[in-house]
Structure formats: C-alpha cells, structure tokens
Write a structure and sequence with these properties.
434 residues, alpha+beta, 2 domains, 5-stranded antiparallel β-sheet, 4-stranded antiparallel β-sheet, 22% strand
Length: 434
C-alpha cells in the first residue's frame, strides 16, 4: 500500500468510527445511513437525497395505501400479512433486514433506515430463486461496497457486474401479488423489449444526466465520483447520476412519448387525421409502475377561424368494455372520478378482483381485464374523423398527450391530493381542406 492510500484508509476509518460502527463490527443487521457516504461522495449524496429512493417511505401514496388499506386488512386476514411485509421490504429494506416487519404510525419520519439507501443498494450481491422480484434480494453488508467500476481501491474493494445490470433494479421493480398476478412488472416489460435485446439497461436511462436516451444514446456525467482530501481522485468518463428520475419526475415524463400529426385525408364524411403516438424512447410500457393507477390520455382539438373544439375519440376496444376512451367503461365514474376530459383516448390497464369487478387495489387483483398501454418502442396510430363545415379551406389541429400518476377517484378514496396532469407531448398542424 502506498503512502497516499494509507492516509485515505486511515481517514475513512476515523470517519466511519466517528459516525457509525467500526469496520470489524459489521453483521447482517448493520447498515450505515446514507449521510455517512456524503463525506466522500457529496454530489452523489445530494442527488440521492432528491430521489424517490430517499423518500420511499415518506411517499404519501405509499403511506395512505399502507395505513388505510393494507395494515387494516392484514390485521383481519393473515393472507395479507406477507403482502404487507413485502411492501415494507422494498420501501424500507434496511429496517426490514434489521428485523422490523411493519411500519407503525409512531415511527419517526424521515428516518435513516426508512429509505432505499446507499448502503443497501451497494451491498446487493444477488437474488434468491429463479425469478426476479418481490424483494428477493440477497444482501451482504460490510465495509466493502459493490459498484460499477472495474478498478480496486482501499475502500470500495469490489466490482459487481450486477450493479451495472437491470437485474439489480428488478428485485423491487417487479411485483407479483399473492394471486400470482404481475401488478408492477416494469422489469419484465423491459426484458421483453428491444431495449433488452440491444443491451440498454435500466441504468442507461434512469441514471444518466437526462433521465432518458438522447438520439438513442445515454449521456452520462464525467469527472470524479468522489471528493477526498489528501489524495487525487481518478477522473472517470462515466458517472452514474443518482436521482433515479421516473414516473414521479415531470422533467422525465415530459418528452418520454412523442406525438406527430399526419397529413389529413378528405372523405365524404369529413377529414380523417392520424396521430402517431411514439413510445420508442421508453424501454418499458407507458405508463408503467403501479399498473392499476397510472394513466395517459390523448386529446385532439380542431377548428378554423380561431374556434377550437374537442374531437371525441372512438373506442376501438368496445369488445373489451370500451375502456380505451375516458368514461367509456361501465364503471369509469367509480374508477376515474372527475377531472379527466371525457371522450379522450385513454391508455391504462384495468384489474378485476375475484368477483370480476374492476379494482384499484393491486393486492385484490386476480386478472388484467384490459390493457392498452403502449408497448416499449411501439408507435401507435390513432385515427380521428373531423367534421368539415361547408366553405372551410383550412383546419388547425392541436394534439396533447397527458400523464397522471393516479386518478382523482383514488385520491378521494384515500384522502390524497389530486395530482396535476403532466403534459408529455404536444403537436400542432394546419391542414388544407380541398
């Protein structure tokens, strides 16, 4: 060991002793809080602190579902106990690994063990069983941290290929409920996509500068992954960003899907216009994540002389209940509530329970009765018929695609704020009418 490295090891050991456990005292239940990592990784620490990983337990939607639905049912039905523990194992893995099995209303938040923290992720060494998901991570806590760099140091001693692969995300981003139904299977969606075939990993989108690919390529930060006194830290051409933007990040949702208005075709009934909804920038379905909650809708307005009217979408899935149009489904008022424009093209999935009724509860779902979400890399054509008043020579078209994390009816049921719609994409076009 050279002199500089010896100084670094000594300093890191002192910091560790001053803030947590001595290096030799690691056991299965011992994890350092993320703030410990700030000493050498201040920039990455700040990024993580801004992420949903750092707020995994504080998330109001999680807390509402957990305390108002999951725990009350687990108290009455033992079948739900394991389901509740599974939620906790991914939202607060360190607390779970320390032996805590449930969140309590008396637990103080935020808490250094109530998050998806640095030490947890960087000690994931594998997974149990043949399938990935449902918190089946294998964790090996200790002074050595697993990382993506194939260079050794006196502190973070181990490169782990798993840290560079989507599988490290899959242990919690692939959820199958107790009925055996995949209810949040973003990893499976990716695995079946062209992105997986092209070796584009979750990290290539969700841990780059932009949160998505640019021109089909990932743009990563460059520089130093650490900032340490008394030693020159290696410059790196690729540094992973730790904000993990996704469904909760408006900056990433905006632009995730593209829109293009094709030239119209005049018919005896009016003007037929096709809109291309392009999901080629996403390596999973859109929307993804909590499948029963997420939704997108497409609105088209048309007019002349400054007067714009909404053009209603026509269901192409009437045989499946008409759920591809807002308010087209038999129980949409119960599922959606108010605030989503009627007759818009709607992209979503509908779960049904054991009685065949639509449900917004992933743990009650036994079947996916409807799913018209965009597949990874899919470009879907949506056709509209626009009436053309006599004497019209030009029609202005305006298309907008919106995203909502959960519907107003769900918010009302759990006393949550109604989320603001996020505009994903917009397109405008003027079409001559002959």
């Amino acid at each position: 060991m050279n002199k500089d490295r010896g100084v670094v090891v000594l300093l890191c050991s002192i910091l560790w002793l001053g803030m947590g456990l001595p290096l030799a005292a690691f056991g299965a239940a011992n994890y350092e809080p993320s703030i410990t990592c700030e000493n050498c990784h201040p920039k990455i620490y700040v990024q993580h602190a801004q992420s949903m990983h750092a707020k995994s337990v504080e998330n109001p939607v999680f807390l509402a579902q957990y305390f108002k639905e999951m725990l009350p049912r687990a108290a009455k039905d033992p079948a739900f106990v394991e389901e509740a523990e599974g939620c906790f194992a991914c939202h607060a893995p360190v607390a779970y690994l320390r032996g805590k099995r449930q969140l309590s209303p008396s637990d103080e938040l935020p808490s250094p063990i109530m998050e998806v923290g640095c030490d947890f992720c960087h000690t994931i060494s594998g997974f149990r069983g043949p399938e990935l998901g449902n918190a089946n991570y294998i964790n090996t806590p200790g002074p050595s941290k697993l990382g993506p760099f194939q260079t050794k140091s006196d502190w973070h001693r181990k490169f782990a290929k798993l840290q560079t692969r989507s599988e490290v995300c899959a242990v919690c981003h692939n959820v199958v409920n107790k009925q055996g139904l995949g209810v949040a299977v973003t990893y499976d969606e990716w695995k079946n996509s062209q992105y997986a075939k092209d070796n584009i990993q979750c990290q290539d989108c969700h841990m780059n500068i932009n949160g998505f690919l640019t021109g089909g390529k990932a743009r990563f930060e460059k520089g130093k992954a650490a900032s340490m006194a008394f030693v020159e830290v290696q410059e790196r051409g690729k540094i992973f960003t730790h904000r993990f933007p996704g469904a909760h990040s408006a900056s990433v949702v905006h632009g995730a899907v593209g829109l293009k208005i094709e030239p119209g075709v005049r018919t005896a009934e009016g003007l037929v216009v096709d809109i291309l909804v392009d999901n080629s920038r996403t390596g999973h379905k859109m929307p993804s994540g909590s499948t029963q909650l997420r939704m997108m809708w497409l609105e088209l307005k048309a007019g002349s002389g400054g007067q714009m009217v909404t053009i209603p979408a026509v269901s192409v899935k009437e045989q499946d209940g008409g759920y591809d149009v807002t308010s087209g489904g038999a129980v949409d008022s119960e599922l959606l509530g108010e605030g989503i424009p009627k007759a818009s093209r709607l992209y979503r999935a509908i779960f049904t329970d054991a009685d065949g009724k639509p449900t917004m509860s992933a743990y009650d779902a036994v079947k996916i009765a409807f799913d018209n979400r965009l597949e990874a890399s899919e470009v879907r054509k949506e056709s509209y018929l626009i009436p053309v008043p006599a004497g019209t020579t030009e029609i202005a078209l305006s298309a907008s695609l919106y995203y909502m994390a959960y519907p107003p009816a769900f918010a009302k049921r759990l006393d949550l704020p109604v989320p603001n719609p996020v505009i994903i994409a917009a397109a405008n076009k003027r079409v001559e009418v002959k």
